[in-house]
Design goal:
15 strands; 3-stranded mixed sheet; EC 3.2.1.21; about 40% helix; polysaccharide degradation; about 475 residues; DNA binding; hydrolase; binds ligand GBH; single chain; alpha/beta
């Protein structure tokens, strides 16, 4: 039985992203991004009005005892046309934010791309154009020039799988393209942007450079209750195919400088290989200092010969994405804390030298809002169960340096808008009033004692039990 205490110096904080909280979409010279232009994208304003209220938000984090804050920089605030003319007023905002954080004793972690591509670049092909990767490197350099004296750790991209395949495959996210070829080409150009951006950051003196990936274990329905269940050969093949598309497509180029062997024929069939140039994988595979892991939920699949490909997973014909009778969040995502352990075990086994950070973990639930508080026992249980699993993973040797909750505030959940609640802090969007939820108070105690209390999670799930 492991202790519930975390190692000394363990990093505790939260993550946010620019489009989801800042608002002020046309302010101080900001150019439009693909999310401003996307149908429903006007949701991005006022969001949490963080552009004006950041001092209050930093104070909230400080009062909760947080030592880290991961935010994203809006590319089109810095470079309104995506390239060329620099907008100093936009950089000034991040300058003020970073100073405010440092003054509160909070370490800033900057993400350069959390899905909000400048619309001007989209008009020139966006991520389907190779040039966008080079423009990203320029943007990385310009931003580092201004903030690099105070921001040590830089993440290039957030969740390139989502940006490529939900943005260009299923089209649920901006820019709303629906083309398997575009999705694979965009994915490659994002990987290249990571490589070129990392290089630019390093050559301008950044001390630590990383990338953030959404990683999910891929399981069969039976494995959800018991990881040890051996899938049939057909199901194992389905699992491997989805695992390659979702996880290995990004992990292996970045950490090994190569494509998964079983992916190349899929890319070639769907998109050709003309977009992959000699030397690209060397650039993409240069060493990084830190891998950010976003973990929310497992993906559950099985073989079903008649199934058509899911547009977010081109090449997935014959595979059924299963909904399973298990506890889910309000978004319907299966709750499986043990999935985090599967992700960490695999990374620890295959990439023992890579330093890790949980850069996002959290859940959307319907909160009980009353006069005396915001009661969100489901969120607290979700977070606590994941932290217990994380604590056990540390004992197994996982090199996880910190944990960041998604998210500080209820905010704009992309295509879903304001109805989704991931915050530790409730936001009344009519008044912009912030109120701490019970989970925020619980998290403050976790941070204060650098660990969990002795109580078991309030609502143990079948999956937690299975993971032991
Ligand atoms: C993150 O995306 C984002 O970084 C953040 O901006 C967002 O607000 C937050 O999470 C909450 O959504 O079921 O096939 O899509 C998380 C996106 C959701 C992607 C779960 C992977 C599982 C595979 N992830 N998803 S699938």
């Amino acid at each position: 039985m492991s202790t519930a205490r975390f190692p000394e110096g363990f990093i505790w904080g939260v993550s946010t992203s620019a489009y989801q909280i800042e608002g002020a979409s046309g302010e101080d010279g900001k150019g439009p991004s693909i999310w401003d232009a996307f149908p429903g994208g006007r949701d991005g304003d006022p969001a949490c009005d963080h552009y004006r209220r950041y001092p209050e938000d930093v104070r909230l984090m400080r009062d909760l005892g947080m030592t880290a804050y991961r935010f994203s920089v809006s590319w089109s605030r810095v470079l309104p046309e995506g390239a060329g003319r620099r907008n100093d007023l936009g950089l000034d905002f991040y300058d003020r934010l970073v100073d405010e954080l440092l003054g509160a004793g909070i370490t800033p972690y900057a993400t350069l791309y959390h899905w909000d591509l400048p619309q001007a670049l989209e008009d020139r092909g966006g991520w389907t154009s190779r040039d966008t990767a080079q423009r990203f490197a320029d943007y990385a350099r310009v931003t580092h020039e201004r903030l690099g004296d105070r921001v040590d750790t830089w993440f290039t991209l957030n969740e390139p799988w989502v940006a490529a395949f939900i943005g260009h495959g299923s089209g649920v996210h901006a820019p709303g393209r629906r083309s398997a070829a575009d999705a694979f080409v965009a994915a490659h150009h994002m990987l290249l942007a990571h490589g070129l951006g990392a290089e630019a950051l390093r050559s301008s003196g950044a001390s630590r450079v990383g990338v953030v990936l959404n990683l999910s274990p891929v399981l069969t329905p039976a494995q959800l209750g018991d990881f040890a269940v051996e899938p049939s050969e057909e199901d194992a093949e389905a699992v491997a195919r989805i695992d390659t598309l979702l996880n290995r497509q990004f992990v292996e180029p970045i950490l090994r400088g190569r494509h998964p062997g079983d992916l190349l024929p899929v890319i070639e069939r769907e998109a050709g290989l003309g977009h992959v140039h000699d030397g690209d994988l060397d650039v993409i595979g240069r060493p990084i200092d830190l891998l950010g892991v976003n973990y929310y939920t497992p993906v559950v699949v099985r073989a079903q010969p008649s199934a058509a490909a899911d547009p977010a997973f081109p090449g997935s014909e014959g595979i059924l994405f299963c909904s399973v009778p298990t506890a889910v969040t309000a978004m319907g995502w299966p709750i499986m804390p043990g999935g985090l352990s599967l992700v960490l075990r695999r990374l620890t086994r295959e990439y023992p030298d890579t330093e890790l950070m949980i850069t996002e973990n959290g859940a959307d639930f319907v909160d009980v809002v009353t006069g005396d508080g915001i009661h969100d026992v489901d969120r607290t249980s979700y977070l606590e169960e994941h932290l217990r699993v994380l604590r056990a993973s540390l004992d197994e040797g996982a090199r996880v340096r910190g944990y960041l909750v998604w998210s500080l505030l209820d905010c704009v959940e992309w295509a879903d808008g304001y109805q989704r609640k991931f915050g530790l802090v409730h936001v009344d969007f009519a008044t912009q009033r912030r109120r701490l939820k019970d989970s925020a108070l619980w998290y403050r105690d976790v941070i204060k004692r650098n660990g969990l209390g002795v109580d078991r999670p309030k609502r143990p799930t079948l999956e937690t039990v299975a993971a032991r």
